[in-house]
Amino acid sequence: MPEKTSSAAAVIPIFLGPATRSIQFQSRGSRLRKLLDRIAPQTPQADSDFTMNFIQNAIVLALLIFATGIMQAQEYGFRYLGASEGLTNLTIREIYQDRIGFIWVSTENGIFRYDGERFEEFGPNQGIPSSSAAGLGEAPDGTLLVGGKFGLYNLHGNHFEKLNVAFKSVSWAQGIQADGKGHTYIGTDSGLVVLSIAVHNDGFEARVIPQPAQVRGTGAFGVLVDGDTVWYGCGLELCRMDSKSTTIFGKDSGLPERSTLTIRKDHGGNVWVWERKLGAFELQVGKTKFRRPDLPIPVDALGGIAGTDEEGRILLPSAEGLLLRDNDGWQKIDRSNGLRGTVYSVLEDRQHSLWVGLAGRGLAQWRGYGDWTSYTSASGLGSDLVYEILPRADGSLLVGTEGGMFLGRTRGFAMAWTRVASLGSPAVHSVQAAPNGDAWVGTEGHGAARMRSADGRVTWFDEKQGFSAKDAYSLRFDRLHRLWVATEAGLFVSTAPYERFARITGLPANRFWAIAEASDGTIWAGGDGGLFDCVNGVWKSLAADGLSNKEVSALGAGGNGVIWVGYRLGGGIDRLQPSAGGMKIDKGIQRPGTTGLIYFLDFDAQGRLWAGTERGVDTWDGTRWGHYDIRDGLSWDDCDLHGFAAGANGTVWIGTSGGLSSFKSHPRNSLEMPPEVVFTHLIMGKTDVSGLSDPHFGAASNSLTAQYATPGAQKQTAVLFRYRLSGGQAWTETTERKLQFARLAAGAYRLQVEAKDGDRDWKGNRAEFPFVILPPWYLSWWFLSICALMPCSVVATMIRWRMARAKKRERELVRIVDEKTQELLKANQELQRLSFTDTLTGLANRRVFNHKLEEECARMTRTISL
To answer: What sections of the protein cross the membrane (predicted)?
Structure first.
């Protein structure tokens, strides 16, 4: 049931927790008083009465103060991050947020990066040695610098590179500070160094600022950049350097001869410094000497690296918790507030979460820092089940709980709680103020009661006064000063002077949960039997088929006669608006994904609608829905029936099953921006290519693994991603932070990833990774060109080969012909010889004689003719 109904078995343990502690304090005081009474007769008579009264009163007062201190301690929402989130070393020495939004921590065994979900260790495999103390800061180009006794390193992608600088070590405590104008000031063993972007080559150039002659000691330590002024620990003194001169603060200025490790400036302009092993010193505006601040803890309990928040409050780490100082003084945040362990470091990030580094307990995130505060049974309330809340004109608060009603008054930084004993300890579901200032109380099992403002006297109402119900779930006064009570036996009403009640006979005598008066004067009532309205004294029922559900659990009255309706068994929220034909019903207008039980619907001083659900609180500002839950600082996600109240100062009180929460939003400097996606790892094949621009990969590296994060998102668990590979393709939504693409074909690709917070719209704020996968060698252009030219080459080769063979054959034939010709010539010559000689004697024969005769005759003929 929505009211978290109590039983005897349930009430007893919830009630006995705080009550037992109160009884213990009282019994201890009584035993001490009796002990003192027994001792008193044995003391000397002179001054014995005065001494005894003084001791008794002092002890009792101390006990009361101690008890009150426990009862008024408020609680905050701390989330602890450790080994389960990948943080393998749990001693956090320094915390830093880089320009992208990642949280970096320096531990006793190296540095880690938190991406909003898990920590990743950076050590020798990433190019940087492990160290027990490392300073973190921003380089002139906006990248990350890490320094320590191991030197100075710069992060590129996911790999660190050591910078070639003259100095050997960097002060790890606030030793790296950027001015946002392209300069980074570093405290080193060589003094103060200014790092800037090199003009003539890539990288940085370092310039050492000479140590002032009056300074004793060497080196520079903590650094604070304050506009155009730079404060830094110089040797055993403190230096303030501006564009004109350097001022030295030393022993004459109230500082000891020690190294200054940390320097901060608060909202009032006061300068705070922390000297090695001596704690804090303060230089107030207009003063010339530092002084010891008035602290609520011993000086030797201070330690670690101090910080400031956006409002300029000083945050001091200590062995006893975290100290916060503002205009109202010091506030100590320790185990009683939910912070456990010794504090070493503190940082407020740009999203206004406060990160607290602990000794051996990891990293704590203060959720809802500056906005949310909670109270539970450990803080003095009778029960963690909190129902209706009534803020009063004097600043006090009446709170109905499962263990009775409690009065809260502001004491210091918190509310101190006192049980309203005159009511007993029944479960109080409703608390309302009457026009004359009396408080009316609705209980479970005991009906309704009136507590007079003049003397606190309580009057209970039962059947004698016409109130026949036992469970009064909701009480409301309307503009006519009528008192309406929703009960398990129907709806009751009473008029001034509120001595008798009458049941509304026109309504069913079953359970009613909620009552509301619309701005037009219409009275609305809802419960198990549905939704009813009363106009001019006439009650009527709204058709159940027009609503999202039959059982109404919450009603909220808006402007212009609008009524908001929430349901007990699902269905979400409906909005009813007056129209010419009756009431127009807008069904299911709740925040997307919220269709469960609605415990309350009410408006704050700014006109925002608050809807209490079993998964936190939803808000509607007239344009869009918002959401708060335990991740934001709400004490518990499961709200309770009517557990809402809005103060005139903007404070909102919310009752849950895990305590009472207060919320007051503070103006922030940062604008509300959509979450920005950042790639944390890009692995092609087996190679991390993070930081590369438009790379090309071979076919063997055709698989891509992409990890990404939204380091600046307010609610990491509410972030939704979508991605696509290459343009033009459809987006795919996912909650995963890792993508894998295997066996990608050759070609040009572009991986795009976007993120949005919860149910908000996509803003196009995306991360992109363009890359090219080259084809395998057998599909490359040169190989395909070769393959295309190969047939032509073969044909041409064959033609050339055949032509060469033909020419060779021709030359061979010519040679053969020549040889045959020679042989024929020789044969002819031999035949001629044989034909002109005698074979026996070898002498010329008649054929020779005839041939010679013919030649001579021919010659003679030519001669005669001439």
So the answer is: 779-801
**Are β-strands 766-773 and 696-697 bridged in parallel, bridged antiparallel, or unpaired?**
parallel
Residue 690's contacts (CB-CB under 8 Å, 6 or more residues apart) are 157, 158, 679, 680, 681, 682
Q: pLDDT digit string (tens) for 571-617?
A: 789 999 998 878 899 999 998 878 889 999 999 999 999 999 999 99
Report in angstroms the alpha-carbon separations of 164 from 48, 131, 153, 183: 78, 19, 9, 17
Picking from 585, 521, 581, the residue whose alpha carbon sits closest to that of residue 552 is: 585
User: Residue with structure tokens 């209980």?
Assistant: 443
Q: What share of the chain is helix, strand, coil (3-state, %, to 5)?
A: 20, 40, 40
pLDDT in tens, 315-360: 999 999 999 998 888 999 999 999 999 999 999 999 889 999 999 9
Q: Alpha-carbon distance 474 to 443, whole Å?
A: 9
- Given strand 563-567, what is the order of strands in its sheet? 552-557, 563-567, 573-579, 582-586
Bridge-based pairing of strands 439-444 and 427-433 is antiparallel
Measured at the CA of 340, the angle between CA 654 and CA 275, to 5 degrees, comes to 120
State the DSSP H helix or E strand holding residue 22, giving kind and residue range, or none if neither.
helix 8-39
CB 609 within 8 A of CB 602: yes
d(CA 311, CA 258): 29
| Upper half-sphere CA count for residue 188 (Cβ side, 13 Å) | 24
Q: What order do you get walking across the sheet with 732-734 strand by strand?
A: 696-697, 766-773, 747-757, 719-725, 732-734
- CA dist 304 and 343 (Å) reads 7
CB 713 within 8 A of CB 757: yes
Q: Is the peptide bond before 44 cis (omega within 30 degrees of 0)?
A: no
Q: In the chain, what are the domain boundaries? A: 678-779, 793-865
State pLDDT tens for residues 182-226.
Answer: 999 999 999 999 999 988 778 899 999 999 988 999 999 999 999
Q: How far apart are the first and last CA of the chain?
A: 158
The β-bridge relationship of strands 279-283 and 354-358 is unpaired
Q: What pLDDT digit, counting tens, does each position of 275-322 carry? A: 888 889 999 999 999 999 999 998 888 888 999 999 999 999 999 999
CA-based R_g, the chain, Å: 46
Calpha distance 254→269 (Å, rounded): 18
678-684/639-646 β-pairing: unpaired
Q: Name the residue with tokens 């022993």.
A: 251
For the stretch 624-683, pLDDT in tens is 898 999 989 999 999 999 999 999 889 999 999 999 999 998 766 555 667 889 999 999
Distance between CA 304 and CA 791 in Å, rounded?
Answer: 78
| Bridge partners for 468 per DSSP | none
Coil, helix or strand at residue 593: coil
Helix axes of 846-865 and 781-836: crossing angle, nearest 10 degrees: 100
- The torsion angle over the Cα atoms of residues 511, 513, 519 and 521, rounded to 10 degrees, is 20
What is the average pLDDT score of the chain?
86
Alpha-carbon span 169 to 584, nearest angstrom: 73
* Amino acid 787: pLDDT: 80
- For the record, the structure tokens of 456 come out as 């606190």
DSSP character string of 765-815: -EEEEEEEEPPPGGGSHHHHHHHHHHHHHHHHHHHHHHHHHHHHHHHHHHH
CB-facing half-sphere around the CA of 418: CA atoms within 13 A: 11
- Which of 314, 301, 353 has the alpha carbon at shortest distance from 95? 353
CATH topology for the 678-779 domain: Immunoglobulin-like (2.60.40)
Beta carbons of 276 and 240 less than 8 angstroms apart: no
Say if pTM beats, i.e. exceeds, 0.85: no
Tokens matching residue 635? 């004490």
For residue 269, pLDDT over 60 is answered with: yes
Report helix, strand or coil for 571: coil
For the CA atoms of 347, 626, 720, 571, what is the dihedral angle to 10 degrees?
Answer: 140
Q: CA–CA separation, 185 vs 205, rounded Å?
A: 12
